[in-house]
# Entry
Amino acid sequence: MSPAELLFKIESEQPGKILAELRRHMPGKSWKHVRRLLRARRVTINRVVCIDEGRTLTQGEKVQVSTRPLAPPPSDEGVLVRYVDRELVIVEKPSGMVTLRRSSELCWTERRRRIQPTLDESVARLIAQHAAQRTGERLRQKRPRLLAVHRIDRDTSGLLVFARTEAAQQQIIRQFASHKAVRKYLCLVPGAITDQTVVSQLIRDRGDGVRGSSADVSIGQQAITHVHTLRRLGGYSELECTLETGRTNQIRIHLAEMGHPVCGDIKYRGRLNEPLEDDSGSPRLALHAAILCIRHPTFDKVLEFKTSWPTDMQPFLNQLLARRR
# Structure
């Protein structure tokens, strides 16, 4: 990432939009100036490029103004459709793209949505474009409907499934709830970890506005993660984490509370009041949904998909391999 001209954390519980916050932290700069910073791709929020003037900030987010332009945010071209039929779609999501648009953004115009698309919107466009090319028909304005089954964190990459009918949606959700679906993630963490199963009660606020675990088994949601070390990379480890439950940020929370926060994670850095520094140099959150296995909602068929680390993580992996030698 480019050196920072400005870096600040949102402390307010009710912050404004990105333009207003930039002006507040850059006294003397005009609205025209901060707009130019966005359009020049010099502003990131939690390391993700922001070019949307209407982006509303939330407490705890980190905003950086870089000294030079950064790579553009993910677009349709960064999404890979691995499987599609009338019941479901399985795709690979790039890091930096959210799965679904927030309800407050559903009224946005098509032009504004295209500035920073969501995964469901990109996938719908790709399916419609492929159908038009295959049939030789003109691209229709009405795009296929995609229904959410699960989500992947914005900064996480990897495999995800959408349903295309309500019946398929409910059937796949039941597979997730009964732990019949298999989801395995690759991640990179500092140090060495013994293979184990982590069980905790996750709560929305551990005391500082951040999700975490509670010792009180009467509250929160039970979260279970199976951790297995694939290889050691110098002072780091590549792990395979299998979700038995799929709580929000589950893997990131469990590893951080064990003292091994995921490389590049700026939110979960350890237990309450015990933050750990990240000296890894990872370009982004080193978490990748690598294996997805479900049973087709209509046919008696198991669908299993695998994917390795994407290209944006390869230079960092090479650095860790070099350190090991």
Summary: The chain has a mean pLDDT of 90. The chain is about 20% helix and 30% strand. The longest helix spans residues 119-135. The first strand starts at residue 4 and ends at 9.
